[in-house]
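Side project, low priority. Logging it here so it doesn't get lost.
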Amino acid sequence: MTTTHNTVEFELRELIRAAEMSGLNPQQIPSDVNPWTWDDPRAMSWRSNYRALNPAVAQQAEILLGGPLSLALKAAMEAGEALSVDLDRELKIRRPQLHEQMRQEAMERAIN
């Protein structure tokens, strides 16, 4: 069974598994939330564990449901500039899959 939130389709089993991995009782989580929309301090752990289970859907959720990128980060990425330490940290937090992809591409360019 899947649940859709703003065009992100979460697998219910994965949501429950990630919650359990975070030490959360799924019976205490409202059915209309997901790790990116739940206004609870424990949501960060839930997001982290969901990323481990399904990085592709987590990336989609970060883009559609997570906070927007800063203007500085967006401008640097569009210009193809090297990211400062702070901008790299923001990208790693807000778009972890994209961050890893960019890191891998940079390593491949350095090797070649």
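Brief comment: The longest helix spans residues 96-111.
Revisit when time allows.
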